[in-house]
Amino acid sequence: MDREINNKALLTDLYELTMATCYYKYQMFAPATFSLFIREYPPHRGYFVSAGLEDVLCFLESFHFNQKDLDYLDNLGIFPKDFLHYLSTLRFTGDVFAIPEGRIFFKDEPILEITAPIIEAQLVEPFVINVINFQTTIATKASRCVYAARGRKLVDFSLRRTQGVDAGLKVARASYIVGFGGTSNVLAGKLYNIPVFGTMAHSFITSFKKEIDAFRAFSKIFPQNTVLLIDTYDTIIGAHKAAIIGKELLYQGKKLKGVRLDSGDMAPLSKEVRQVFKEAGLNNVMIFASGGFDEYKIAKVLEQGAEIDAFGVGTKMGVSADAPYTDIAYKLVEYDGRPVLKLSMGKKTLVGQKQVFRLKEKNNLQKDIIALRTEKLDGEPLLTPVMKEGKRLFHSEPLTKIRDRFQTEFAALDESYKRLENPAIYLVELGPALQKLQKQVVFKVREKELGES
């Protein structure tokens, strides 16, 4: 593994630096506002969950180019010396408005807006997009798993198949925000104070001469946390052996905590396993299932009457297999006090610094209005000032607080928007002042750039 990258200023695209060079040479240092938003819903999505803001704020607050960064850029032979000298003292000095982590938002709504001298705001684009895109994608996917599980515990099992070590950590964090009970990822547990779970793999079972010997060995060392993997050879026979261990633990004044199923037809198998424990008088043994689960498989096995108390959710959640990315964009909407936009087919942008107002009816989400930040409308403003002149306005939030925020928000979202397939489209409107300014700017751009009158 490559050594850890502590300074991430170079985690940008080359064209950001070439544009920045031009801005510098032409003395373009005026404030610019960039807006981050998602253009369309991925398949079968009706909402998004805000996640990743914490990493963005940490990055912006510590943004700088160190000498090794500058030496590397110098060796590329394409940047003027005076520009590199300028970069040596560059820090992020801008303001950030953002939707707090854990909140629900919808397409076209600004997730965050950055206002800073244009070079600063431009250079941070790739990092901001990368972080918010990934963590929002995973938080949204994981929330659908929680919804499908209908109150059953979920544990993140994705580490070994996420696309990168950092991704494994962020998946654990994002899934915990939306209601997962914990993670198998021990480092994530340490970093984010997330509960960690796990017992054994099939290799543990096969390393012993007999399956029941492996069960006994484990229960002897971990009598308070004995969860036995019972499908290495035959799930039902394994369940009978686990029942023997359960009775032995009862005789010692302890109890078998649970068993794990990792293969096979989960619904009928779980029913048979439950019956084995009932007949053995072990009525409180938890049945934990893993193996290819996501929201669709969880919903399917529960519809079939599966006797499953908790799920380990891994690969398909950790990479958001059915929708691994969003159509996210970070676009200039104002420069030096002048509202600007893009008119490209299918990629038009909304001008100006904005706010999103949320209207509720009987505590249920009714509709959102994207407005100019100066507009005064009914409803709760979602975008909150989180950074001023390059300094954070609040300390890192405990994940439990973000988690509570999500649960409150999600409970207020109608079931029709949560459907796993073909969800309803939530109503998002434009505020009157934004509509007016948008039309004015479009007219001016068409007149000036396209020769229309």
Automatic annotation (TrEMBL):
Its keywords, alphabetically, are: Glycosyltransferase, Ligase, Phosphoprotein, Pyridine nucleotide biosynthesis, Transferase
Question: What Pfam families would the database entry show?
Answer: NAPRTase (PF04095), NAPRTase_C (PF17956), NAPRTase_N (PF17767)
Catalytic activities: 5-phospho-alpha-D-ribose 1-diphosphate + nicotinate + ATP + H2O = nicotinate beta-D-ribonucleotide + ADP + phosphate + diphosphate
Gene Ontology biological process: NAD+ biosynthetic process via the salvage pathway
Q: In which pathway does it act?
A: Cofactor biosynthesis; NAD(+) biosynthesis; nicotinate D-ribonucleotide from nicotinate: step 1/1
Query: What residue stretches are annotated with the Nicotinate phosphoribosyltransferase N-terminal domain?
Result: 10-133
PTM comment: the record says: Transiently phosphorylated on a His residue during the reaction cycle. Phosphorylation strongly increases the affinity for substrates and increases the rate of nicotinate D-ribonucleotide production. Dephosphorylation regenerates the low-affinity form of the enzyme, leading to product release.
Presence of the UniProt keyword S-adenosyl-L-methionine in the record = no
The record places domain Nicotinate/nicotinamide phosphoribosyltransferase at: 153-354
Xref: Gene3D superfamilies: Aldolase class I, nicotinate phosphoribosyltransferase
Under the heading InterPro entries, the entry gives: Aldolase_TIM (IPR013785), N/Namide_PRibTrfase (IPR041525), NAPRTase_C (IPR041619), NAPRTase_N (IPR040727), Nic_PRibTrfase-Fam (IPR007229), Nic_PRibTrfase_pncB (IPR006405), Nicotinate_pribotase-like_C (IPR036068)
Per the database record, which ranges form the Nicotinate phosphoribosyltransferase C-terminal domain?
A: 380-438
Residues in the signal sequence: none
Answer whether the UniProt record assigns the keyword Metal-binding to this protein: no
Taxonomically, the superkingdom here is Bacteria
List the record's Gene Ontology CC terms alphabetically: cytosol
User: GO molecular function: any one?
Assistant: nicotinamide phosphoribosyltransferase activity
The EC code for this enzyme is 6.3.4.21
**Task of the protein:** Catalyzes the first step in the biosynthesis of NAD from nicotinic acid, the ATP-dependent synthesis of beta-nicotinate D-ribonucleotide from nicotinate and 5-phospho-D-ribose 1-phosphate.
Similarity-based family: Belongs to the NAPRTase family.
What name appears for this protein in its UniProt entry? Nicotinate phosphoribosyltransferase
Q: What is the lineage of its organism?
A: Bacteria, Pseudomonadati, Thermodesulfobacteriota, Candidatus Desulfofervidia, Candidatus Desulfofervidales
